[in-house]
Amino acid sequence: MVGYAFMGAAHSQAWRTVNRVFDLPARASMVAVCGRDAASVAEAAQRLGWAEAVTDWRELIARDDIDVIDVCTPGDSHAEIAIAALEAGKHVLCEKPLANTVEEARAMVAAAAKARAVGVRSACGFNYRRVPAVSLMRNLIAAGRLGAIRHVRAAYLQDWIVDPNFPLVWRLQREKAGSGALGDIGAHIIDLTQFVTGQRITGVSGLTETFIKERPLPEAASGLSASAGTATGEVTVDDAALFIARLDGGAVATYEASRFATGRKNALRVEVNGEHGSLAFDLERLNELEFFDATRPAAEQGWSRILVTEGEHPYLGAWWPPGHILGYEHSFTHEMRDFIEAIATGADPTPSFEDALQVQLVLDAVARSDSSWVSVAS
Ligand SMILES: NC(=O)c1ccc[n+]([C@@H]2O[C@H](COP(=O)([O-])OP(=O)(O)OC[C@H]3O[C@@H](n4cnc5c(N)ncnc54)[C@H](O)[C@@H]3O)[C@@H](O)[C@H]2O)c1
Fold first, then answer.
1. Which of 6, 58, 101, 126 to mutate for ligand 1's pocket (most ligand atoms within 8 Å of CB)?
2. Residue 176 class from Cβ within 10 Å (0-12 exposed, 13-18 middle, 19+ buried)?
3. Is 7 a pocket residue for ligand 1 (Cβ < 6 Å)?
4. Which helix (DSSP H) or strand (DSSP E) does residue 252 occupy?
5. In the structure, how many helices (H) and strands (E) does the chain have?
6. 6 CA to middle of ligand 1, Å?
């Protein structure tokens, strides 16, 4: 694994847990973790459960006893690490968004296609697909329970940079992150809505805004927390992104991604309205799925709350008895479960780099839109 902070910790927990919960045809062995500071990465290896620590990811790629490279670094290094790993015959799991630009994402897709031809697999870490209630939402839509989809309504809202003195961490720098709220959290709702509906975005019209244009430079930073220094620098990404979209199955959609939604910490909500009913998911209640079944007699219709903890529900058979709820981190355990199973059975894990490139094309279209309509290449 490369990178050991926020996602590094989440992925480590999943790698540690996955084979203890799921009966899989292969076992994950946590061989080595890479960071840039020797003392910090050694401490992280110990804490997170990795046997060894190294300071150059190229060392991982050169080793014969490593089969999988898990990329948990900021977007500016995804393409370089993932392409080198695939060329060296390593399976790659890469965090989202796949890259910082469409050009990089295309190069990653080309490397993935070449690698796939010799049985080397790759996937992008859109973990929210693996929340059981989200998987159930997809299954119900795929089974036709909503009929034709008319509306998709998605929002991913945070507030961790509302304070103008919050420092200029890597997520606020274009050369490190590619974009701001758009690529960081907007990418999740683009992937999630395309996943649950089975439809792809064909065109968008959007706007982005940067409310605070200059911030103190950070003295120390990790994940979403940091302390401010005295010098300042320019914010080069969006603070918020809003767009409307058309999907290839005829649905219309609205998307909102913001880091300025005061009071909203990590509020991801998606609602889908169809001719026979509606479904809604809210991450703050991730064990639940709301369902309005318009095929029931009028006197019995109403929103129902499905508690998604039954053994029949996606992923739940391996966990606890019904009613014993799961949390955020389990989505990563499920990601590793699906990734290991695909590799062990010679299948392609999802979402593929091609799927993630399509998300990148949507991000790019929104960034260029400036309120005009932009078609998304298929
Ligand atoms: N799936 C999700 O829900 C989710 C959530 C948060 C972040 N992410 C994604 O995960 C990735 C990492 O984000 P994060 O929040 O973990 O960031 P972070 O700042 O918490 O951690 C980044 C890590 O990468 C390391 N790093 C940076 N450049 C490196 C290099 N060249 N070589 C070795 N290590 C390097 C840093 O030292 C640090 O350990 C990003 O692509 C981000 O978009 C995904």
1. 6
2. middle
3. yes
4. strand 252-258
5. 11, 16
6. 7
The answer, yes or no, to whether any atom of ligand 1 lies below 6 A from the CB of 351, is no
Identity of the residue numbered 231: A
Contacts of 266 (CB under 8 A, 6+ apart): 158, 283, 284
What does the alpha-carbon distance between residue 323 and residue 363 come to, in Å, rounded to a whole number?
Answer: 38
Distance from the CA of 3 to the center of ligand 1, in angstroms? 6
CB 132 within 8 A of CB 308: yes
Q: Buried b vs exposed e over 36-66: b needs ≥16 C-beta within 10 Å?
A: eeeeebbebbeebebeebbeebeebbeeeeb
- Cα(216) to centroid(ligand 1), Å: 21
Per-residue pLDDT tens digits for 308-344: 999 999 999 999 999 999 999 999 999 999 999 999 9
Best residue among 1, 73, 172 to mutate for probing ligand 1, ranked by most atoms within 8 Å of CB? 73
Cβ atoms 256, 242 nearer than 8 A: yes
Q: Is the CB of 75 under 6 A from ligand 1?
A: yes
Given a contact cutoff of 8 angstroms between Cβ atoms, the answer to whether 353 and 112 are in contact is: yes
- In angstroms, what is the span from residue 8 Cα to ligand 1's centroid? 7
Q: Is the peptide bond before 97 cis (omega within 30 degrees of 0)?
A: yes
Residues 4, 35 contacting (CB under 8 angstroms): yes
What is the rounded CA–CA span in Å between residue 104 and residue 179? 14
pLDDT digits (tens, 9 = 90+) for 203-253: 999 999 999 999 999 987 666 677 887 899 999 999 999 999 999 999 999
Q: For residues 96 and 82, give the distance between their C-alpha atoms in angstroms, rounded to a whole number.
A: 12
CA of 165 to the centre of ligand 1 (A): 22
pTM: 0.97
| 3-state SS, residue 208 | strand
